[in-house]
Amino acid sequence: MANLFYNTLPKILADELSQFKALGVGLKILTSAADVDDELTQIVNKGTIKWVVSNKGELVVTSKWFGTWEVAHTVLVEGNPVLAAGEADISSISSQFYGISINNFSGHYRPNIESLALGKAYFEKLGIRFLS
Amino acid sequence: MIVYRNDLLKQEPAKILDWLKEVQSGSQQVDEDVNWWLGLAEMAAYSATTEVNVQDRLLWAQVVNSVQEYTANKANPAASNPHEVSAKLLAVRLIDELGPVVGHPILDPNLIEEWFFKGLTMSYEEAVSKAKNWRERPVEEIAQLRNLKNRLLPVEQLKEKGYLADNSELSKWLHIRNNLP
How far apart are CA A19 and CA A45, in angstroms? Predict the structure, then answer.
């Protein structure tokens, strides 16, 4: 049974959610290979992404930065607990996705290093393998 | 003495900056988990955005910068530092909201330009050449090119908001951003 990680900064959640709603932050839920599409290409080619595996077992991603704002991991799951979280750099060209790097960095959820394997497995199920 | 984040964040930003100086000098023991540092930086960035008092906002932004510097010293130079692009984007936002101030540790747009050039790991010509066939490059080089793409973001934002003086060298770099992986 995988661990659940909880938001360690709950006092600022309401502000974070309203702030990023106002910015129009787009989230993408990746449940099957069909979701690995042009929209995902646009997200990953902007720069680093944030990802979580929600407590429902869904992989959710978004761009790490919108303008000058950094998106909090909590925004991806409305502050709910997660099975894994982190950041990744992926590049896409000609409908091919190249996983450059992935980590378990999240100041809000502070997931342990063991949870990273779960995140990698979710990306791999979609055909995105990390080079390192 | 071990300091825990929850206790630390009850302090005023000036006190946290003093504490960070002690950490950097080695006279304080701290939790070395990178997520602990990220949590501190994220909370400080939130305060830099939401505090009413302008001086406090700027001090919180300095906390974010200090955390970034501390972790950068420990990071692999070839790897992307998880804080630095976010710290510089926060500075761009504060410059835009409060106005640029030459010589100020946060509000001086020139510092972002200096940071970009200081962190370069390859020449412009190398970057252009490597970007052409990046898929055939070793993963370390692809990661360096992606790191460069991320580092161009604060510069791009600064330019978009009109705080970057005409600088052909920077414009050259910005032009290749979309060619980077």
Answer: 24
> H or E element: which one contains B60?
helix B54-74
Chain B residues in contact with A72 by the CB 8 A cut-off are: 42
Max CA pair span of chain A: 43
Q: For A48, name the nearest residue in chain B, comparing CA atoms only.
A: B150
pTM here is 0.93
DSSP β-bridge partners for residue A63: A49
Contact criterion met (CB < 8 Å) for B90 and A68: yes
Q: Please indicate if any CB of chain A lies within 8 Å of the CB of B121.
A: no
Chain-chain contact of A107 with B39 (C-beta, under 8 angstroms): yes
The dihedrals phi and psi of B31, each to the nearest 5 degrees, come to: -70, 125
Q: Is the pLDDT of residue B32 over 80?
A: no
CB A68 within 8 Å of CB A95: no
Q: How much is the ipTM here? A: 0.94
CA distances from B144 to A95, B121, B129, B150 (A): 22, 8, 13, 10
State yes or no: pLDDT of B174 exceeds 90. Answer: yes
SS (H, E, C) B139-174: HHHHHHHHHHHHHHHHHHHHHHCCCCCCCHHHHHHH
- Lowest-pLDDT choice from A115-124, B70-79, B104-113, B126-135: B70-79
Q: Residues B73, A63, B42, CA angle at the centre, nearest 5°?
A: 45
Minimal C-alpha gap between A110 and chain B (Å): 5
Q: Which residues of A touch B157 (CB under 8 A)?
A: 67-68
A95 and chain B in contact, CB less than 8 A: no
